[in-house]
Structure formats: structure tokens, C-alpha cells
Design goal:
8 helices, 13 strands, 9-stranded antiparallel β-sheet, Rossmann fold, alpha+beta, Tumour Suppressor Smad4, 2 domains, 4-stranded parallel β-sheet
């Protein structure tokens, strides 16, 4: 029996170049189970192009972080032909998409999961015409993601430490805004706000479990909205959001929905899998079980095989 074909798409700048080194180190082990080809991204948007146009591969292995996965998902979701299986090698600064699929951050263990080749159909989110695999953050989170992009090559921080440094800087000039949410034609929220998370997975920012009960295959968006609070309270409340133990707070609102329409009182930053955009109005929905991905037994799946 012939081996499944796998295209390893490497982001050569992930984790300041260390991601490329780590990715290449596991190729010999992958070749024991797959017929492997390798391609390197040449810059922003190239992974999306490769994922859209590559033909003849059973699996696309994304060697990078959440930004690389974001591009790959957008490429694969735009394909008119049969979609390849996606697998994630978590060698980026933030790896929340891989975490959602239960992929270990230890490379040896991650490769063991990939070669075991257990897969599941998982949901994909869409904001307007942009797809996302794991997380969407409006407002403060979007601004923090934009600042984190500026800082990561300067500070060499990653994950939660990078998020916290970025948060410290953006809070100095933060201005709140009003968010309006509609679901199924009904107004469900309208208040001055700091942020809203509209997630497929449980975490973002390299390990903030802001939607701790989410499943990546339940056909629902998990939503957390935080009302406007004084800036000095943010560091006090933040630890509870990191560990997902915030539901006792009156300023935090949670709901689940298949789709929402969101309107902000001013244009704000939005992060999708850590990649930032600017919007004022957003039409957001979940596409049920849209992609097949490699998972482990620790994936956040409602339907365990």
C-alpha cells in the first residue's frame, strides 16, 4: 500500500527562525509514514496561496503558529475541489489552533500524533468573507494582537508573556466603544464594552482560556463579551480570564450561537487567529464540520471517536 502524500508547508520566520529548524528536524520521522514534499512560505499570504493551489496531496502539514494556520484554512476553504486533510506542527509563537486539536507542543509527541493519523471533522468560523480556525477577538484583544505583532521580533517574547506586555502598552491609550450583538434576528447585547471573543476553540493569545467550555465540532460559536471596566481593574480581573474562571463577574456575558451580527460604535481592531483586521460591522457564523484535521485523544471534541 502506498503512503499518504504530505506537503509540509514551513513558515521560515516562525519563532524567529527556530520554527524552520524544528520543522526540518522532524521530516525524517514523517517520511516513515508519509510521502513528503516540502515548501517554504515566501512571505505574508503565500501559505494561503499554496494551500489553495497545491494539488495531489492527501495532507497539508502547517509548520508554524496560528497565523500560518489562519492562512492555510483560508486557502483550503476557498478550494473548489476536494479539500486535503490539515495537520499542525506547533512551532510558532502562539499555537492555540494546535492546542484545540490536542497536538502536543513537544515535537516528538506531536509527530507521533501526526503519524498516528487520527482525524476529525471540525468547525470553521467566518467573519464577513474571512475564515478562521480557532479564535476571533474584537476590541481590546484585536488591538493587543496588533501590538503583539509589532513587539514579537523586538522582545522575542511569545504566548502569554507577549500578550501581557502588549496589553500593558495598549491600555495606556485605550478608549472603550459600544458593541451591539444580534442573534437569530434578536438583540442579545448592547453596552459599552472592552472586548468580545467569538471562538471555535477554547483559548487564544497563547493560552488564555476565554471560552473554556468550547468544542471544535459542536456547530456553535462560543462567545464571551466583557463590558467596559476601569483600566486599573484589568490586571486584577485578567488572571480569571486566563484560566477561564470568570463567569462570576457581572461584567462578563457568555452565550452560544450559530451566527451573530456585530456592530461597533466605531471602527475597531479584530483579530482572527492572531491576524488583525479593522471592522465596524461583522457578520459572523460557524460552518459546521467544514474541515478534516489531525487530532489526538486530547482534542476538544464533543464527539469523541
Amino acid at each position: 500500500m502506498s503512503k499518504p502524500s504530505l506537503l509540509a508547508i514551513i513558515n521560515p520566520v516562525s519563532r524567529h527562525g527556530k520554527g524552520k529548524e524544528d520543522s526540518l528536524s522532524v521530516i525524517p520521522k514523517l517520511k516513515e509514514s508519509f510521502a513528503v514534499d516540502i515548501v517554504e512560505s515566501e512571505g505574508k499570504g503565500h501559505i494561503e496561496k499554496i494551500s489553495l493551489e497545491s494539488k495531489g496531496f492527501d495532507v497539508l502539514l502547517i509548520c508554524g503558529g496560528d497565523g500560518s494556520v489562519h492562512e492555510a484554512v483560508n486557502g483550503v476553504m476557498k478550494r473548489k475541489d476536494e479539500k486535503p486533510i490539515l495537520a499542525y506542527l506547533p512551532v510558532g509563537s502562539g499555537n492555540d489552533s494546535a492546542r484545540s486539536c490536542g497536538i502536543p507542543f513537544n515535537l516528538k509527541k506531536a509527530v507521533s500524533v501526526i503519524t498516528s493519523f487520527k482525524t476529525a471533522k471540525v468547525d470553521v468560523g467566518r467573519m464577513n468573507n474571512i475564515y478562521y480556525s480557532n479564535s476571533l477577538g474584537i476590541g481590546l484583544d484585536g488591538l493587543v494582537a496588533e501590538k503583539a505583532y509589532e513587539l514579537r521580533n523586538v522582545t522575542r517574547l511569545k504566548g502569554v508573556p507577549l500578550y501581557l506586555k502588549s496589553l500593558q502598552l495598549v491600555l495606556k491609550d485605550w478608549q472603550s466603544f459600544t458593541l451591539r450583538f444580534e442573534s437569530e434576528g434578536k438583540l442579545v447585547y448592547e453596552k459599552p464594552s472592552m472586548l468580545a471573543a467569538i471562538n471555535i476553540g477554547r483559548s487564544y493569545g497563547g493560552g488564555f482560556f476565554v471560552t473554556p467550555d468550547a468544542f471544535i465540532d459542536d456547530g456553535l460559536l462560543d462567545i464571551c463579551i466583557v463590558e467596559e471596566i476601569p483600566n486599573y481593574q484589568v490586571p486584577i480581573r485578567l488572571p480569571f480570564f486566563i484560566i477561564g474562571k470568570y463567569k462570576w463577574m457581572k461584567v462578563a456575558h457568555t452565550l452560544r450561537a450559530k451566527s451573530v451580527k456585530v456592530e461597533a460604535s466605531r471602527e475597531v481592531f479584530v483579530q482572527l487567529d492572531g491576524e488583525t483586521y479593522r471592522v465596524k460591522d461583522a457578520d459572523i457564523q460557524v460552518i459546521d464540520k467544514a474541515l478534516e484535521v489531525v487530532v489526538s485523544d486530547k482534542a476538544f471534541l464533543r464527539s469523541k471517536k
